[in-house]
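Replying to the earlier thread about multi-chain prediction with a worked example.

Input:
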Amino acid sequence: MIQLSYLDYLAVEGKSFLHCLSPGWKIAGMLLVLSGIVLLRNPSGLLLLYGMLLSLFFLCRLPLRIFPLTLYPLLFAVLFIFVSGFQGRFILLVFLKVLSGSTGVVLLLVTTPYPLIFRTLDRILPSIFVTALFLTYRSIFILINVLEETRHALYLRRGFQWRHPWRSLVNISNAFGHLVIKGIEASEKMYESMVLRGFKNKIHYRGE
Amino acid sequence: MKNGERIVEVDCITHVYPDQTKVQICGLDFVVNRGERVSILGSNGCGKTTLLKHLLGILVPRDGSVRVFGLDPGKEYSKISRKIGVVMQDVDEQILGPTVFDDILFAPLNYGVGKKEAVRLAQHVIERLGLEPIQKKIVNYLSGGEKKKVALAGALVMEPDLLVLDEPFTGLDPLSRRDFIQVLNELNREKGITSIMTLHEVDLAPEVADVLYLMHGHGDLSERGTPGEIFGKFKDLGSFNLEEPTLTRLFKGLKEEGLDFGDPLGIDEAIGLIKKHWNDTQK
Amino acid sequence: MKNGERIVEVDCITHVYPDQTKVQICGLDFVVNRGERVSILGSNGCGKTTLLKHLLGILVPRDGSVRVFGLDPGKEYSKISRKIGVVMQDVDEQILGPTVFDDILFAPLNYGVGKKEAVRLAQHVIERLGLEPIQKKIVNYLSGGEKKKVALAGALVMEPDLLVLDEPFTGLDPLSRRDFIQVLNELNREKGITSIMTLHEVDLAPEVADVLYLMHGHGDLSERGTPGEIFGKFKDLGSFNLEEPTLTRLFKGLKEEGLDFGDPLGIDEAIGLIKKHWNDTQK
Amino acid sequence: MSHIHLPDGVLPIWLWGSGFAVAILIGFVLFRFIKKEELTRRLPLLGMMSAAMVLGASVEIVPIAYHVNLTVISGILLGPSLIFMATFIVNVVLALFGHGGITVIGLNTLTLSIEGIFGYLFFRLFWKILRRLMPATFIATFLALCLSTFSMIGVVGLGVPHYEELLHKNGGHGVFEFKLIKEKDDHHGENKEKGEINFKRFIAIVLPLSLMGWLLEGVITTLMTRYIHRLRPDLLKLEKEAR
Ligand SMILES: Nc1ncnc2c1ncn2[C@@H]1O[C@H](COP(=O)(O)OP(=O)(O)OP(=O)(O)O)[C@@H](O)[C@H]1O
Ligand SMILES: Nc1ncnc2c1ncn2[C@@H]1O[C@H](COP(=O)(O)OP(=O)(O)OP(=O)(O)O)[C@@H](O)[C@H]1O
Ligand SMILES: [Mg+2]
Ligand SMILES: [Mg+2]
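Result:
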């Protein structure tokens, strides 16, 4: 599971120069990185790009704990090894591109609190999407809570044991259903309270 | 209290939940006048939350009528919503974030208050509730008590005429509870805010309510009175799954033992009564 | 109480949540002996739930040690889980349903008790808690109080030696609360069940606890004593965001006015004290 | 592996560019046709199901690199137009978590929403035919996942010339030479069209993995639908047809 709360903590409490940079600049930088990824065709250029991102990572003294996060998309990139027929150069290119992309995003994420990222996106995307993004983010936390508590309940009441795989599967699928129902009920309550707080048909998050 | 204008009137409503659970809020009419602090007491699952949801237009009754500020909230809630602040039983879903400050801004912005004025309103309520230390925090990381306060701030920010609170004190520690009560009572005194709340803490009822309603199983509203009236004279509170406040129980017990000090509702009053009695007999 | 065997021992643990909130449960050692009823009081967000989660192995401390029945729950909880019944703060997620009866059967079936025996155990606990009327209901449609009772039933069905309860009384109406307390105290008396609970209702503490722990902000355990000791002599309970129970406040107030009746914790005791005093002075 | 989060920088520009274009076009059309009140009323549900999909996607069942998507169940609950927006949001959020590519948000949205939309349509269809919840759900999920996987494979396939270009650009010298030779050794006799061969191998790897994914997701979706049907039948909106 992504350690969202830890990322948020880093984004809010961090003090590096990247934290101080305005989110607009950082997103512009991210776009630059992206165009580099798209346009560069030779390993040396990509190595340079990746090297720059890595050094930024260490210059900002980001904890090593989150470094594995930048490796995560490699899971998907591995499939492209099969496309290439195990050719080193191709694999190197693909991996560098993937790594540069994910390192850039992680840098952005851990140095910018998410409300600021979304708010900057608000200038580009239709506001309804951004509202939905905010609601999604909030919902993730509500669901994580439910998920955690449900997991604890399964654990405390011995709902999951390798010795009884079938019972465990039934218990787990019930828990999943429970999760979805809880989520839906929470979303209904959210809607109610939005209406109670003056929501009609358009959300105004920050004054527009 | 102030001028006796009727703000809320509920006349024998019936609600049937999708699973056919029927809640019939009947018996006495549920009436709230401007400036009154009204509390509803009753057992678990008797229909308190159901009643409040009807006032807010979240549920629509099958039979019976609901009037809030003279309108039917089921149909025209948007016309009156600005005058009503709400804190529901489950505050988690009520807080939309992303940060505390944004959340408090939600209502003003959605009511089309200008940006500047909205910020002013939000700052005002933040100051009043002492939320400055957490105003920049992301809402996902607040503790239960803090969430309750943020929800209250969100309800108060539009300076409503009517506050609807569903079990506002559950899960709060005793001092936070006391702060909460103090804010509510100040608002009532200064601005004449009307409030309707449900609660289970009978000991707090005399402090937060001018009028109490008692609700029987499945919605039967069968008693109305001041805390003194409800707790003072003997009533079969057990049938409401209630008990008297500690002080009432103590003084009733004393009365049964032949020591009649009166029926105090607050501690200071109780001390005063005992002392007076004591001095009288000493003389 | 029975034989003083130590069931739980917590020695200065530190927990750091992913968002770097640090909770350090330190100060006094947290020790629970067999047959004791222990309550933990403290302000919102001070770390009560965190402590309980460590006892259950849900959280694992960064530093310090936890022993429950002599084992480390973080590693070997499955060996002791059968002896422990749990009701968490948020019962909603604890009930896995779909019906009440299914939910109560959950634990016995998962512990490999035979079907017949499991049903017998479930029926026994349903009877004891008076849940017959709702045993066929789907758990999502229960009211808050009913859910709490079902969760308790789920915790009791395996006849545990230790009960861990996180704010079991919040959201319950006064009579359900009293029933709940009665069941707990009966179990303690009859079977010597040990219980550890957190709560915010100071008035109830003397009735449900032999030993109280007070917890300061961020986990500092700084007081241990019987309810009489904690509330009796003057302590700065405000710094724990607590207040004294109503009776204690009344009798302290009376003492300040020169009327020293003593420090009763229960109503009957209070009546007895006042009466005795009264008769003494009359003579 | 019903759905692969394609990473950045692998696909050719024209491909992900047109992915964006098509996604935006569809989004725009849907946006015109959907009722605004409907959209705002269901926005919290949309957010919640998106959240569920994000969570599902980040809980990896490690050994087979599989993760549940919950797209079909979300499609059934949200309906075809909202699920499109939901998948877009899921992809944005996942991309922001460093999970998938940013440039390919468009394409990912398309492949993922195929799953949701067809999941919904198939579910309705098979419900009409079979009148039984569990088989209908299972078949609908299975088929929808098939479709989306094949469309993903198609997308990757469209990029084949591009990969070859990447490969051959200056693949004749330097460090990589010996690899190439080794490769030739491996595949003597079948080097007619290298790209095609490699692509076949890609399919050969993806399909069996996907099959497991389809089955697992099918079972999970079915069990969840059953649970929902038991507790909140109203959410599935089956009344019209069921009666
Ligand atoms: N969504 C629902 N679906 C079906 N039945 C419901 C629903 N909500 C409440 N009920 C039922 O309606 C009755 C009244 O519930 P309500 O929530 O109003 O009780 P309450 O007085 O607020 O109780 P509590 O003190 O526990 O909050 C209960 O019997 C409950 O089971
Ligand atoms: N999952 C979590 N992630 C981050 N911080 C947390 C988490 N759970 C609790 N905390 C923090 O840890 C501290 C202790 O929380 P805990 O839940 O133990 O308090 P509590 O004493 O049970 O409070 P309450 O009386 O409100 O239930 C609080 O400051 C809280 O914000
Ligand atoms: Mg209620
Ligand atoms: Mg707690």
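Residues 1-124 of chain A form one domain.

Feel free to reuse this layout for your own posts.
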